[in-house]
Design a protein that fits this description.
Blueprint: E1 2-11, E2 19-24, E3 45-48, H1 58-62, E4 68-71, E5 74-77, H2 87-91, E6 97-100, E7 102-104, H3 106-113, H4 117-123, E8 126-130, H5 139-151, E9 156-160, H6 166-172, E10 178-182, H7 188-195, H8 200-211, E11 216-222, H9 230-242, E12 249-254, H10 260-265, H11 280-292, E13 298-300
Parallel strand pairs: 2-8, 8-9, 9-10, 10-11, 11-12, 12-13
Antiparallel strand pairs: 1-2, 1-7, 3-6, 4-5
Helix pairs in contact: 3-5
Length: 302
């Protein structure tokens, strides 16, 4: 069984056509601007919206394991005692509690994904495995699901940061139509500062995927203070040219902070408060750098 935070249907931003995107739980990176903090940890969690919580104590009374107690009209949660039965969320009159991460078997997941087969076929869409980082979770689970989708004739896209042993990519490559591959920052020290690791493995895997014939969309989350500049984009182009990588598309993804509220619910600190997206003119200028270098398939967003 695998923890999944969300199955998003009718998505048009995670690959071709109409898609269902599966968000797996767990990621090895620590991107400062991450807008899905609920997918960072591999284990299940409990969200609490303290702005909604009234401190009534209904959750504590309903918990069969004593995992919640109330102090000063505020609930305190003990994750070690919690079995994620969901009773606290069920009784909350303010809908302030929510379990993050639901367990699926391969059979259950594929059954859910097949419900929209008609829309995939009509639109040239399919399924996207995202996260978190799908290439860092249980590979036996991911591979089994990929094989079954392939058997059913469903197109599969993998949304990845590239930070995983290449053997994992080799195993799943025969069942994947497209990789949405993040190339965040070219400078390795800057990469480590904002993401927690350098980019050596990520870039090596990109080269090997290209050499193995994978269809790749390069995606660059673009932050004004970090990588939204001419130097980073030209260094990206130089790397692609040096290694003869020909992406099917390049997507510049403007930064947004819509996930900042999720951090509060998980008692996590959001460290991207001083970050901003380049404005429309700046984004167009960055895209023009790629287009003028011959990458006419460059788009803002995607």
């Amino acid at each position: 069984m695998k923890n999944i935070t969300n199955i998003q249907k009718f998505s048009i931003h995670d690959g071709d056509g109409i898609r269902t995107t599966v968000f797996f739980k767990g990621c090895p990176l620590k991107c400062v601007w991450c807008h899905n903090p609920e997918t960072q940890r591999f284990e299940r969690e409990m969200e609490l919206d303290r702005e909604k919580c009234t401190g009534c104590g209904a959750c504590a009374a309903a918990c069969p394991n004593g995992a919640i107690h109330v102090e000063d009209h505020k609930p305190v949660w003990n994750s070690l005692s919690c079995t994620f039965c969901g009773k606290c969320a069920d009784v909350c009159p303010a809908s302030a509690r929510e379990i993050v991460g639901y367990e699926y078997t391969v059979k259950e997941l594929v059954k859910e994904l097949m419900k929209d087969q008609m829309f995939y076929e009509q639109s040239g869409g399919g399924v996207t495995f995202s996260g978190g980082e799908v290439m860092s979770v249980d590979m036996d689970f991911v591979l089994a699901a990929a094989k079954e989708l392939d058997r059913q004739g469903i197109s599969l896209t993998i949304d990845t940061c590239g930070y995983a042993p290449y053997e994992r990519f080799q195993k799943i490559l025969p069942y994947v139509d497209t990789f949405l591959y993040d190339v965040k920052i070219m400078d390795p020290e800057l990469h480590k500062k904002y993401i927690g690791v350098d980019n050596k493995l990520i870039l090596e895997n990109l080269v090997r995927l290209s050499q193995d014939g994978a269809r790749i969309y390069i995606r660059i989350p673009t932050i004004k203070e970090v990588n939204g500049n001419e130097q980073n984009m030209k260094e990206t182009i130089a790397f692609l040219q040096e290694h003869d990588i020909h992406p099917a598309q390049i997507n510049l993804l403007p930064y947004h902070d819509t996930g900042s509220g999720k951090y509060r619910k998980l008692d996590m600190e959001y460290k991207g408060t001083d970050l901003h997206a380049p404005d429309k003119e700046e984004m167009e200028a960055l895209a023009a750098i790629f287009i003028n270098a011959g990458y006419t398939n460059t788009k803002i967003g995607g």
